[in-house]
Amino acid sequence: AEYMGTNDRVSAFDFVLPNLIPFKGQVLNIISDWSMRQTSDIVPNALAFDKQPDPNVVVQKKMKNLSVECVVRGYLWGSMAAAYEKGDRDFCGLKIPEGLLRYQKLAEPIFTPTTKAHVGHDENITLDDMKKQFGEELALKLKETSLALFARGQEVMRKVGLILLDTKYEFGVDENGKLHVIDEVNTPDSSRMVDIEEYESKYPQIAKAFEDAAKAGQPFANVSKLLDKHPSLKIKEFSKQYVRDALISMGFDGKGPLQLSNEVVIECSYRYVAVCERLTGLPFPFPQDSDGADSLILRQRLVSNLQRTGLLSPAGGVALIFAGSDSDAPHINKLVEQLAAFKIPSVVRICSAHKQPAKLEETLNYYNRSAQACVIVACAGGTDALSGTASFHSLHPVVSCPPDGLDNRTCLTNPPGSSNAFIARPDNLARFVAQTFSSRSLFLQKFILTNAKEKVEKLVKADAKFQSGK
Fold first, then answer.
1. Which SS3 state, helix, strand or coil, does residue 379 take?
2. How far apart are CA 421 and CA 419, in angstroms?
3. Rounded to an integer, what distance in angstroms lies between the CA atom of residue 347 and that of residue 296?
4. Which of 49, 358, 398, 435: disulfide with 420, CB 3.0–4.6 Å?
5. How far apart, in whole angstroms, are the C-alpha atoms of residue 22 and residue 10?
6. CA 185 to CA 27: how far, in whole Å?
7. Contacts of 347 (CB under 8 A, 6+ apart)
8. Is the pLDDT of residue 141 over 50?
């Protein structure tokens, strides 16, 4: 199985915004988990547990991702509406009729797949393209399954007063080639939703205003132009579109993300929580923490739950081995081996303090956000600037264990603000890291005490042996 942690970051126009949207990650997990269980009769899903280990974690069975976005649209909305208003009528090999308006319901839901781009924008593809990539049988099954999931989503949402406008699904296959839905299903991040009352109130007004303007000889080129003049008619969605619209109103120029106002953040969070409660019929489980410690308590809870389910090491933390060069590989391997004896996982990063100072600082800042406890092990021979730089920028303790051992004491003369420790032997280093993590790991507490007891007993036996003369 593999697990995915969700967070409260939000992206728009290919930028990750500096703001966090409170509870967004938890909302997406709750809705996706709930939706997958509502559709398991249509297609198997990748959920690995009946109950997820933590509100911010989804554990799914490992699948081969087919790397295609299976988009289903029931209304002329979003990017499709924008392209339609510019004159496009061919979408993913489908001919869309003339005379439609933005927000108008399509005669029937349509399947408009795209590539899944890891960099840049997704690109529209046709069903024929999918047949060439996956074969006709699997391509048709992907289309059929996507439409069935969308129909179920529309059915479920209509019961709670919502319209599912469009959405995207991702699929994978297991080791036997069996199709599964993966990632998220019918969430506000992967879908557009609207309140039925909102739609049925505003769309007829939009259609009438558009028609009346044409009859009066002052036609609007499209609905977007009409909305420029009558912004109150814009239909409010439960989706990330609210964030996009807010950025545009703030003057977003496509060159970089903007800081959202507190009002926008609060409204966005409210929309996520509101749609979660409406869909599931359950009150949202807000954290009961206080004293401004919510973030820290959440991180501790997250790590504890992942340890409890065996998804994280029982050691309670991870050792980050920073080396200045891959020429130190033999020493790095000794460190990894000694840490593994205490069941402490390690991550090795090669980053020179002399040649890559900017990258080193960026990498240290990345690990400063870790929910897990960390100890940084600086492994640099010669003139050791690594330990000093790391201990200045890192939130985590730094221990220097250079490949040239006691012959290298440059880390002991680091300037003020550098707070690294020094341990020459890899085995002693591993024990020190274990002791550092032991306050949050019952496993390590027992391991360290048992190990010490065994060594003492061995000494007692050796002493007794010599005393007896045997």
1. strand
2. 7
3. 23
4. 398
5. 10
6. 12
7. 318, 319, 320, 321
8. yes
- Distance, in Å, from the CA atom of 400 to the CA atom of 389, rounded to the nearest integer, reads 11
Q: Is 273 helix (H, G, I), strand (E, B) or coil?
A: helix
Query: Are 229 and 209 spatial neighbours (Cβ–Cβ below 8 Å)?
Result: no
Mind giving me the DSSP string for 105-155?
EEEEEEE--EE--SSS---B--HHHHHHHH-HHHHHHHHHHHHHHHHHHHH
Q: What pTM does this model have?
A: 0.67
Q: What is the pLDDT of residues 199-235, one digit of tens each?
A: 999 999 999 999 999 999 999 999 999 999 999 999 9
10 pLDDT above the threshold of 90? no
| Confidence bin at 286 (pLDDT 50/70/90) | confident
Do 123 and 115 form a contact (C-beta atoms < 8 A)?
yes
Backbone angles phi, psi at 180, to 5 degrees: -135, 145
Tell me the pLDDT tens digit for each residue of 243-283: 877 777 778 777 776 788 878 888 888 888 888 999 998 88
Indicate the helix (H) or strand (E) that contains 391.
helix 386-393
**At 28, which amino acid appears?**
L
* Rounded Cα distance, 138 and 260, in Å: 42
Distance CA 334, CA 340 (A): 10
**421: three-class secondary structure by DSSP:** strand
Residue of higher predicted confidence among 293 and 127: 127
Burial (CB < 10 A; 0-12, 13-18, 19+), residue 285, is: exposed
Pick from 191, 182, 120: nearest CA to 154: 191
User: What are the tokens at 250?
Assistant: 């703030």
CA separation for the pair 42, 145 (Å, rounded): 7
Tracing tokens 């199709």 back to the chain, one arrives at 179
Per residue in 33-63, pLDDT (tens digit) is 888 888 999 999 988 777 777 777 778 888 9
Whether the per-residue pLDDT at 371 is higher than 80: the answer is no
**DSSP code of 222?**
S
Sign of CA dihedral 186, 188, 189, 190: positive
Residue 316 — left, alpha, or beta (φ > 0 → left; ψ -120 to 50 → alpha)?
left
Residue 94 predicted with pLDDT over 90: yes
